[in-house]
Write a structure and sequence with these properties.
By secondary structure, the chain is α/β, with parallel strands linked by helices. Among the domains are: 109 residues, OB fold (Dihydrolipoamide Acetyltransferase, E2P) (Beta Barrel), CATH 2.40.50.140; 153 residues, 3-Layer(aba) Sandwich (Rossmann fold), CATH 3.40.50.261; 39 residues, no CATH class. The chain contains 14 helices and 13 strands. A five-stranded mixed beta barrel has the order 1-2-3-5-4. The protein has a five-stranded parallel sheet with strand order 7-6-8-9-10, with helices on both faces.
């Protein structure tokens, strides 16, 4: 009889949980309880159900606000609020988790942490620590990135993964620190000061994963906010999830919604930079060739100008007109009486001498102008030649052939397309390898994935 009774008392876990719930249902005082506390880690899901923790200085209880009851709440619940939750206790059968099923809520004021957050935010904003003009610009390609976060969390792994994908060959220095708990803000602030004092990098990422308001509290402390504000190295804040905001986000030089997004913002996409460089190199080469052709055409035009090729032809008509007038003058003088000739001869000499002097002066001017034109032409040609030589030198520096001379090679497919990745080649393909002094024709025996 004793054995039978003992066996009857054994319950399954499900029966045990259901019996606890029946005990709650049998107690009239437990059918509608009012519990006051501060909301923590509030999350609303697409289904319309909301989950959060209600806590005070002594304890905490898990709460669920189903979609049907949420419509009766007259305000928007958020982490940090003090509320009075109305509901009934329950043990969830599948997990055995004790929770309060909330059917209604009333506001009871702001929570202590949320109130402290708002007060510190206003204080620092009044001091100008959030002002846009005091924020430092993020370097386009940082030489070394300093990550200040936990060495054991997923944050550093996410940052490394994104950096490897976007900019292979990056340099990253990790300063491990605790990212939650009492005193964590002091160690994070000390790490920022150390990075500045020892010039450990030119960009700092401070971050951690998501969590409740209490978990993120170190990033809402004044000591950390002032360390970020005093940093001479730009700081990217990557704390929590996209919807989480901390004091560190407001005072940092750039806020990233997640640690992975911080890595995205820290470095550009290297492959796209190389592609853009190739485009600019091609455009520069084409521009230089066009400029050289323009200068050649202009030089030819200058060389073929009549004033340079046949300068004497420009004064030829005037010289012939002068000779004709002199001949007419001599002919008219022959027909004059002797006395008139004696009178006109001195006049003739006086007239001819200024004409000859004027001709001599004009000839000197022509020679001077011709000399100036030749000097200017030589100077212009020297400048054009110097520019041409510099452009040729720039083309040589950018030319793929110059790279080949340093021991590199270019690989082309059978249809003469440049191969940039092993994804574009397969076994038994025929390829050609371009070297400095020739090419190699090869057959692909095996395609190996890089271990780097």
């Amino acid at each position: 009889m004793t054995k039978t009774s003992a066996v009857a008392d054994v319950m399954t876990v499900g029966e045990f949980n259901r019996r606890i719930n029946r005990l709650f249902e049998q107690d009239p005082e437990m059918q509608r309880v009012r519990v006051q506390g501060e909301i923590s880690d509030f999350k609303r899901y697409p289904s319309g159900h909301s989950y959060f923790t209600l806590k005070d200085d002594e304890a905490a209880v898990s709460c669920v606000l189903f979609r049907g009851s949420a419509g009766r709440v007259a305000f928007n619940p958020q982490s940090g609020m003090k509320v009075v939750a109305v509901g009934k206790p329950n043990v969830y059968d599948k997990t055995g988790r004790f929770q309060l099923i909330v059917s209604g809520m009333e506001e009871a004021g702001l929570g202590d942490l949320y109130l402290a957050f708002q007060q510190l935010k206003k204080k620092l904003a009044d001091e100008g620590l959030f002002a846009q003009e005091r924020k430092l610009s993020i370097p386009f390609i940082p030489q070394r990135i300093v990550a200040i976060t936990s060495e054991a969390g997923a944050v550093i792994r996410d940052i490394i993964h994104v950096l490897e994908r976007r900019y292979p060959g990056f340099r990253l220095l990790l300063i491990p620190v605790p990212v939650q708990g009492k005193g964590a803000e002091l160690e994070i602030a000390a790490a920022i000061k150390r990075a500045n004092a020892e010039s450990l990098g030119d960009l700092i990422i401070v971050g951690r994963g998501g969590g409740s308001l209490e978990d993120l509290q170190p990033f809402n402390e004044e000591v950390l906010a002032r360390a970020i504000a005093d940093s001479r190295i730009p700081v990217i804040s990557a704390v929590g999830h996209e919807t989480d905001f901390t004091i560190a986000d407001f005072v940092s030089d750039l806020r990233a919604p997640t640690p992975s997004a911080a890595a995205e913002l820290a470095v550009p996409h290297k492959a796209r930079l190389i592609e853009r460089q190739d485009q600019l190199s091609s455009a520069l080469e084409l521009s230089v060739l066009r400029r050289v052709e323009q200068e050649k055409f202009r030089l030819t035009q200058l060389r073929e100008r009549p004033v340079l090729m046949r300068a004497d032809e420009f004064v030829g008509p005037q010289c012939r007109q002068l000779a004709f007038l002199k001949q007419q003058l001599f002919s008219e003088m022959k027909r004059l009486p002797r006395e008139a000739k004696n009178t006109l001869l001195p006049l003739q000499h006086r007239l001819s001498r200024p004409v000859e002097q004027r001709l001599a002066q004009e000839n000197k001017k022509i020679e001077l102008l011709t000399s100036r034109l030749e000097n200017r032409f030589r100077s212009k040609a020297a400048v054009s030649r110097s520019q041409f030589e510099r452009l040729v030198a720039s083309l040589d520096a950018l030319s793929p052939l110059a790279i080949l001379a340093r021991g590199y090679s270019l690989t082309y497919s059978e249809d003469n397309n440049l191969i940039k990745s092993i994804e574009n080649i397969h076994e038994d393909d025929k390829i050609s390898v371009r070297l400095e002094d020739g090419s190699l024709l090869c057959d692909v025996r095996e395609v190996l994935q890089s271990s780097d």
